[in-house]
Write a structure and sequence with these properties.
This protein is an alpha+beta fold. It has eight helices and eleven strands. It has one domain: Chloramphenicol Acetyltransferase, CATH 3.30.559.
């Protein structure tokens, strides 16, 4: 009997982590001419006005001082909202075929301590349709606290697994990884190896602004299914000419995104970015469930 996932009945050709999508001829042929994800990277840089979003965060934290909502929490919620409303952004190419995930997943890296020599842990979670910025904030804070409380000796999840793999002698490790990549091509990688791995997330976020670093372009990986890597830079004050012609000092933030161009076209990507701008200009949307339409006019 075919398995039903999130209301979708799996069919022949589907993977455990996504349903197969029939693509136009251009993307289909590209999947064969350029089978590696790093061959199809498209880079995007943009500056987003986050003035209203920062005011939203300030008011929210004044109402709930015991549980702080951060800019990064809002970015995670906004990214999940965008993907939910723009499902093509949740697609990936693997095995020269295109698939669309059954779930939205977000991954990022957290420092175990605020020190340049401190180790990092990979965090991964799946926001649901009923989640909003408050529940996302709690999930992120709880996960970070849990990882940091364990320390470097017991990071758990994919980090512990990677540490174990790193101890395998080099010739054997080369063979094991070759087998894993072969399984990855056919969508047969054991879930024990993919669960919690950012390489299998919808979007991989990096908050470089937290370490006072500007947004950069980060490469994608051929291993896994991740098709979207986004870096967030620092927030700065800058004078900006408003639509009415007046000048105002606004809070701006640069982002750098790397996408797999095989999953969609530039027009779709551009509209998805406009939705992010709209959410930042109307941050009250983040208080609503992720599954609820934003009301953005795509015309």
């Amino acid at each position: 009997m075919a398995k039903i996932i999130n209301g979708y009945k799996r069919k022949w050709g589907d993977r455990w982590d996504g349903r197969r999508v029939k693509m136009p001829g251009l993307q289909t042929i590209m999947g064969h001419l350029y089978p590696n994800r790093t061959d199809c990277e498209v880079y995007l840089h943009d500056t987003i006005d986050v003035t209203d979003l920062m005011e939203f965060i300030k008011k929210k934290n004044e109402e709930h001082p015991d549980y702080k909502t951060t800019f990064f929490h809002c970015v995670i919620a906004a990214a999940a909202k965008m993907v939910r409303e723009r499902p093509v952004m949740n697609r990936f190419f693997q095995g020269r075929r295109c698939y669309e995930r059954y779930e939205i997943s977000v991954a990022f890296v957290a420092k175990l301590a605020f020190d340049e020599h401190a180790e990092e842990a990979l965090l991964f979670f799946v926001p649901k349709d009923e989640d909003n910025v408050d529940s996302v904030s709690r999930m992120v804070v709880d996960k970070v606290k849990d990882v940091r409380s364990k320390g470097t000796e017991d990071k758990g999840g994919i980090d512990d697994l990677l540490d174990k793999f790193a101890k395998i002698p080099r010739p054997l490790l080369m063979f094991v990884l070759k087998v894993i990549k072969w399984l990855d091509f056919w969508g047969k990688t054991p879930r024990a190896l993919t669960e919690g791995d950012p390489n299998f997330a919808t979007v991989f976020l990096s908050n470089l602004g937290s370490i006072k670093c500007p947004a950069v372009y980060h490469h994608l990986n051929n291993y896994g299914t991740n098709s979207m890597m986004i870096t967030i830079g620092t927030i700065r004050d800058e004078e900006k000419i408003m639509p009415d012609g007046t000048k105002q000092v606004r809070k701006l933030c640069d982002i750098g995104a790397t996408l797999d161009e095989r999953i969609g076209d530039g027009f779709y990507f551009a509209r998805s970015l406009k939705l992010v701008h709209y959410i930042c200009a109307h941050p009250e949307i983040l208080d609503k469930p992720i599954g609820e339409p934003s009301g953005f006019d795509y015309k």
